[in-house]
Write a structure and sequence with these properties.
The complex is a heterotrimer of chains A (about 625), B (about 250) and C (about 230).
Chain A: H1 15-22, H2 28-31, E1 35-39, H3 43-55, E2 58-62, E3 80-81, H4 93-103, H5 110-130, E4 155-156, H6 162-179, E5 183-186, E6 189-197, E7 200-208, E8 214-218, E9 221-224, H7 245-252, E10 257-258, E11 263-269, E12 292-296, E13 313-314, H8 316-320, H9 330-342, E14 354-357, H10 359-365, H11 367-385, E15 394-403, E16 406-407, E17 420-422, H12 440-461, H13 473-492, H14 498-512, H15 519-539, H16 551-575, H17 599-602, E18 604-609, E19 618-623
Chain B: E1 4-12, E2 21-30, H1 36-49, E3 72-73, E4 76-77, E5 99-103, E6 112-114, E7 117-118, H2 121-130, H3 150-160, H4 167-171, H5 178-190, H6 192-195, H7 198-211, H8 222-226, H9 234-252
Parallel strand pairs in B: 1-5
Antiparallel strand pairs in B: 1-2, 3-4, 3-5, 6-7
Helix pairs in contact in B: 2-7, 3-5, 5-7, 5-9, 7-9
Chain C: H1 4-9, H2 11-36, H3 46-55, H4 59-89, H5 107-111, H6 113-132, E1 142-145, E2 148-151, H7 153-160, H8 164-191, H9 199-228
Antiparallel strand pairs in C: 1-2
Helix pairs in contact in C: 2-4, 2-8, 2-9, 6-8, 8-9
Classes of the chains: A alpha+beta (about 625), B alpha+beta (about 250), C mainly alpha (about 230).
Chain lengths: ~625, ~250, ~230
């Protein structure tokens, strides 16, 4: 199948406007006759469901949490970018577009990114109108800060809870439509399968997590906004229940999965404290503005950080990157931390941590100023680790944070299955090989509020959609398969718990398919993943039954999919013989040890097609054409 | 540091219809660096290995913002540490051989689904009744067209910080949802964008709160003390003023 | 949109009524105490003169009494409704329950309102039986005021307060009233939506001061009369 991104013609700045004019509309009176099924209630899902319901469509919405308000978008701390140029510091749609394409290491689709930058301003307007309490100046106007190394201040924020406030804004719009009966909300439902009838996405099967019953819902289009797959690494900053199953079910029904190897590792997380660790906690990147990263010069130095004199400390980032120092981009900071730990200089009980020291900042700015700037982060650190960061150095380590890959979508956000639209982190997105700070919230809301309401109308009005009910045989066949799979999971009754196997998968992925990858490691990982998958299906122990709330069963189903996705991730990483953004292949680096892209051979989005009967997935390439920006090599020396 | 053994007394209940009871378990080899929920994770691993039923509890983000988790630990909502959700409670707050009693949040409007998992959809219905500003997507004026004083937006943010965990209800001797409802009414009533619908909002949300079967507010202040986001009961006073405004408005008509 | 009657039955409305009746009752209690202080006057007939003046208000007195009755009834009925509501709102209680209470708020008062209130109600019945409907002129409690024979309430009070048990009961209940007011006063402000970072601590303080002053004032009478006669 030929991958057609359906990017409209014309100059980049006019593509979206022109496209909006050209697409077909649905008669307002007819909209209520169409049902749209929305899976996920994060920023993308909630905003899409609310906006479509406002337009008059009948929406059915599903989420795995007990309330739509708890989707993991809520945990985003930093902020949301928009090209408002309120601070008058030279920002523009063009600059946001350029920064995003460059930040993504030239592996995203130009037209999508430009549209994202265009829409960004409307998002802020919309959120303020909904009552999102963004930070303001004393004069009453909105405050901006610079974020993630951007040279302009374009980030809007609400304390350290921007994601929460944006999500609650979308959730309130969503609940307003529930109240008007335009949205039917189904909480504690997990999508088990996509129903494709006559080649079009026409329904979903969900499992009621309270009763275990499989429920069927038919519709005219399906929107998937189910988030990323970071939990394939077991430990990540994702929520415990974040999973890739919904997307993976769609992949197996024919939606291509693009760029799975693009994963983002965030450099400043609180290190793993032991075997029991269930998730990792992110600390704002802003810490690197004043903190200095170091490790002891002596390997295995067991002294407390404050007992190690200056002369025995190695401030490795400052040494290797004299001009950017501690402020190098996320991927570089992360990779260097891993490197020094691999060399045996890591600190802490696990040896998998580096120090972040504020002694200098405290001396220079005074403890009060440091408290003012970072007090809540220091408190959080002390809360979790029980150590006082004012006395000694903090310990930090990188952690999996975001996945840029996801289901392939065209300019209309439609996957390769007609009618299946994919939004937010679940799609392969506008971030290319690396996402910039404060851009995830922007993309989720852009997709939901301002893109899908237009493009789904175009799909519906230009497609023949005969009436389909849940009585259709496709539903029954799929339901039987889903039940069979659950029974199979429950019948293994082996020795290992779901968690144990998930932890093992995480270790394989982190060690070989993590921050830095090489061919032999990837090859090794592929073997190990395959063995682990066999072990899972023969030796997992899931307690109890499937007809009541059973969280182990839920996690087992998700792990089963992660065990397949992990393989595709490793294959994609193995096939991409270059380094770019979040994907670093040790064989492809510059003399200085930086990522070396191969634009000639790899300037494409890798979209993988599922093949039945254990045949390997087939690669389709969407060529990325850069007409507006010039490709360049990043350098932070 | 030495790991601990703890004696747990945990509420077990098969489903909403069944009667539950407290059962005791031993949590072995618990590290001080574990979070409370990681301790439960480990207990569950041991239970599964022994062929017993794991203890079901809700949790998601495990960084104190999603509001999914929440249990009562030794009679205190979200455990002994203030301004903390139970996922952010660490085991260094406990000592070896401690007895720990774990119960679900208790309220008629929060029925137990299984063990420590409860149904808080009543909160969704309160928001549904009016916890929003009625604007459709598109057509919003420029974000800076209405200036909002910093002090006002800060106060609105204090209220908007609510994570909807239900700790206020669980801690209230009357099982009142006033703090939750007030936080949303207050957040929106403070902002100029939300003032237009303030009367209808206060009326509808309070009425829905009453319908859900929560208790009345007796101004005891337990909710504020238990709230992981330390939301003040001054917002409850604002809710009352907002409601009063709705009544006066009716008299004027 | 919002009929007043419906509003008053809501959780917010109930508490508004509770607060308004509370303020009125506090006012009544203050006036009552001021009247009682006449018992300590050198003129042993002062209290009777005061009582007689009240009695001679005629129809107005009945209006006042009915008003007072309504205030009490409203306060009591709503308290009952809130208590029942609270029971219904949490059918299964906690196995272990530790209260935190925000520092600064009055914990003993706030969680015992229904019980202190119930005790005050019992006292009220006894009190009314004793003084309102108790022994009168025909039982020999006669005194002359302005040349008329009136009920000798002064003697009735003094005699009553010679009983150790009655004095103890009285003192205990008035202490409970103090506890009731220590939470009730600021709580009434909060119920009316009056809360301010600067003034609320002040209201809390004033409430406790009023509670202590009123209970000491009331308790001083029986104690003095018991020991002095």
């Amino acid at each position: 199948m030929h991958l057609d991104a359906k990017v409209p013609d014309g100059p980049i700045s006019q593509k979206w406007d022109k496209h909006r004019f050209n697409i077909k509309l649905v008669n307002p009176a007819n909209k209520r006759k169409y049902t749209v099924l929305v899976v996920g209630t994060g920023l993308a899902g909630a905003s899409a469901a609310a906006s479509l319901a406002e337009l008059g469509y009948h929406v059915k919405s599903f989420c795995i949490q007990d309330s739509a308000r708890r989707a993991h978008s809520i945990a985003a701390q930093g902020g949301i970018n928009a090209a408002k140029n309120y601070p008058n510091d030279g920002d523009s749609i063009w600059r946001l577009f350029y920064d995003t394409v460059k930040g993504g290491d030239f592996r995203s689709r130009e037209a999508n990114v430009y549209r994202l930058a265009q829409i960004s301003s409307h998002i802020i307007d919309q959120c303020v109108a909904q009552g999102v309490p963004f930070a303001r100046e004393y004069g009453g106007l909105l405050e901006n800060r610079s974020f993630g190394g951007a040279q302009v201040s374009r980030t809007f924020y609400a304390r350290g809870q921007t994601g929460q406030q944006l999500l609650l804004g979308a959730y309130s719009a969503f609940m307003r439509q529930v109240n008007k009966d335009n949205i039917e909300m189904f909480a504690r439902r997990e999508m088990m399968d996509l129903i494709v009838i006559d080649g079009k996405a026409r329904g979903v099967l969900v499992r009621n997590l309270m009763s275990g019953r499989i429920e069927a819902y038919a519709g005219d289009a399906v929107i998937l906004a189910s988030g990323g797959y970071g939990n394939v690494y077991f430990l990540s900053t994702n929520a415990i229940n974040s999973n890739a199953s919904a997307a993976w079910r769609c992949y197996k029904k024919g939606a291509y999965f693009a760029n799975p190897c693009y994963t983002q590792i965030h450099p400043t997380c609180i290190p793993v404290s032991g075997f029991h660790q269930s998730k990792l906690t992110l600390m704002s990147e802003s810490l690197r503005n004043d903190g200095r990263v170091w490790v002891p010069k002596k390997s295995g130095d067991l002294r407390r950080s404050e007992e190690i004199p200056e002369s025995e400390r190695n401030y490795y980032l400052e040494q290797r990157y004299p001009s950017f120092g501690n402020l190098v981009p996320r991927d570089i900071a992360s990779r260097n931390a891993k490197q020094v730990c691999d060399e045996g200089y890591g600190v802490g009980t696990t040896g998998l941590a580096v120090y972040l020291d504020f002694a200098d900042a405290i001396k220079r700015l005074g403890q009060n100023t440091v408290t003012e700037k970072y007090g809540n982060l220091f408190d959080m650190y002390e809360h979790i680790t029980g150590e006082n960061p004012y006395k000694g150095s903090m310990t930090i380590f990188p952690a999996v944070h975001y996945t840029m890959g996801g289901l392939w979508v065209d300019y209309n956000l439609m996957s390769t299955i007609p009618g299946l639209h994919v939004l937010g982190e679940a799609n392969f997105s506008d971030h290319g090989a690396n996402r910039l700070g404060a851009s995830a919230l922007m993309q989720g809301l852009a997709d939901g509020y301002f893109v899908i309401p237009y493009t789904i109308g175009h799909y519906i009005s230009s497609t023949d959609l005969p009436s389909v009910t849940t009585e259709h045989s496709e539903f029954r066949v799929a339901e039987e398969e889903v039940s069979k799979r659950i029974d199979r999971l429950l019948s293994v009754k082996g020795e290992k718990t779901v968690r144990e196997i998930h932890r093992e998968l995480g270790k394989i992925m982190w060690d070989n398919v993590g921050m830095s990858r090489n061919k032999s490691g990837l090859q090794k990982a592929l073997g190990q993943i395959s063995d682990l998958r066999d072990e899972f299906w023969n030796n997992v122990n899931i307690p109890q039954t499937g007809n009541h709330l059973n969280k182990n069963l839920e996690q087992a189903g998700r792990l089963a999919d992660f065990l397949e996705l992990a393989e595709l991730l490793a294959v994609d990483a193995r096939e991409r013989n270059e380094s770019c953004g979040g994907h670093f292949r040790e064989e492809y680096q510059t003399k200085e040890g930086e990522a070396k892209r191969d634009d000639e051979n790899f300037s494409y989005a890798a979209a993988w097609e599922f093949k039945e009967n254990d045949k390997p997935a087939e690669l389709h390439k969407e060529k990325l054409v850069f007409q507006e920006v010039e490709l360049s090599q990043r350098s932070y020396k | 540091m030495k790991n601990m053994n703890l004696n747990l007394l945990v509420w077990r209940q098969k489903d909403a219809g069944s009667k539950g009871k407290m059962e005791s378990y031993i949590a072995e080899n618990i590290s001080l660096d574990m979070s409370f929920l990681e301790m439960l994770d480990q207990v569950n691993e041991d239970l599964i290995k022994k062929g017993l039923d794991p203890i079901e509890f809700d949790s998601d983000c495990r960084e104190g913002i999603c509001g999914a988790c929440g249990v009562v630990v030794n009679g205190q909502v979200h455990g002994p540490q203030r301004a903390t959700t139970v996922c952010q409670l660490y085991m260094r707050n406990f000592k070896d051989k401690d007895k720990i009693v774990i119960e679900p949040f208790r309220a008629r409007a929060f029925p137990v689904i299984r063990d420590l998992v409860i149904d808080r959809s009543s909160f969704d219905r309160i928001i549904m009744a009016g916890g929003y500003i009625s604007v459709n997507t598109g057509g919003a004026p420029d974000a800076n067209s209405i200036p909002v004083a910093k002090e006002i937006v800060d106060k609105a943010m204090d209220a908007a910080a609510c994570i909807g965990c239900g700790a206020c209800v669980a801690a209230c001797p009357n099982a009142s949802a006033s703090l939750f409802t007030a936080a949303k009414i207050s957040h929106l009533a403070l902002l100029p964008q939300g003032k237009i619908e303030r009367k209808k909002r206060a009326e509808k949300m309070v009425s829905q709160m009453d319908k859900e079967g929560f208790g009345d507010c007796s101004n005891i202040g337990e909710c504020e003390a238990a709230c992981p986001k330390e939301i003040s009961i001054s917002h409850i006073a604002r809710m009352k003023r907002e409601y009063f405004r709705a009544v006066v408005d009716e008299i004027e008509k | 949109m919002l009929p007043v009657f419906t509003a008053l039955r809501s959780s917010v409305g109930k508490k508004i009524l509770m607060a308004m009746t509370a303020f009125s009752l506090v006012l009544f209690v203050v006036v009552h105490l001021l009247g009682n202080l006449k018992l300590l006057s050198r003129n042993s007939n002062a209290f009777n003169i005061y009582a007689h003046k009240m009695m001679s208000l005629g129809g107005l007195l009945y209006v006042a009494e009915i008003g007072l009755l309504l205030l009490f009834l409203t306060h009591i009925i709503i308290a009952g409704l809130i208590f029942i509501g609270k029971r219904n709102a949490r059918p299964v209680g906690y196995y272990m329950n530790k209260r935190l209470c925000k520092p600064g708020y009055n914990f003993i008062g706030s969680t015992t309102m229904i019980y202190t209130g119930a005790m005050i109600l019992i006292f009220l019945v006894v009190h009314l039986m004793h003084f309102k409907f108790g022994p009168g002129i025909k039982d020999g409690y006669i005194k002359e005021v302005d040349g008329k024979s009136v009920r000798d309430l002064h003697r009735l009070v003094v005699e009553g307060f010679q009983s150790f048990w009655y004095v103890s009961f009285y003192t205990a209940v008035i202490s409970l009233l103090g506890i009731h007011l220590s939470h009730g006063f600021w709580s009434a402000f909060q119920s009316l939506g009056i809360n301010h970072p600067r003034y609320t601590p002040l209201i809390l303080g004033v409430g406790i001061l009023i509670a202590i002053t009123l209970s000491l004032g009331f308790i001083s009478l029986p104690v003095l009369l018991y020991f002095i006669g």
